[in-house]
Specification:
Layout: E1 3-10, H1 13-25, E2 31-44, E3 47-61, H2 65-75, E4 84-87, H3 93-102
Antiparallel strand pairs: 1-3, 1-4, 2-3
Length: about 110
């Protein structure tokens, strides 16, 4: 089984919840973790920025990666969102199987 995780950031919990709801409604991720309280320091349009952000981590099967990335990019409130994919080199086989089952179109199994 090949599973992985998509990382992005948003400005607040409202945006994070909207992304999570959209992704989970379409079974593009088995689980979405939201981590508030992050600070990002970066350069944007010639200006140094210091912004509070929320991390959003979406666990999915590799077969759903493109659909997940496309949806998140289309729904994301940022002009240029951070979209980083991480392949899980090692994962618990039962957990990976659950991710695959939960992202299979039409699956209603809760695990």
């Amino acid at each position: 089984m090949r599973v992985g995780m998509l990382y992005t950031t948003v400005a607040d919990m409202t945006e994070a919840k909207a992304l999570a709801d959209a992704v989970l409604a379409r079974q593009l991720a088995a689980c979405v973790n939201v981590v508030p309280g992050m600070r990002s320091f970066y350069r944007w349009q010639g200006e140094l920025r210091d912004d509070g952000e929320v991390i959003v981590l979406m666990k999915t099967d590799r077969a759903r990666k493109k659909a997940l990335c496309d949806l998140v990019k289309g729904e994301h409130p940022y002009e240029t969102p951070a979209l980083l994919w991480f392949d899980a080199q090692d994962s618990d086989p039962d957990f990976a199987a659950w991710i695959t089952a939960m992202t299979r179109p039409g699956s209603v199994e809760a695990g």
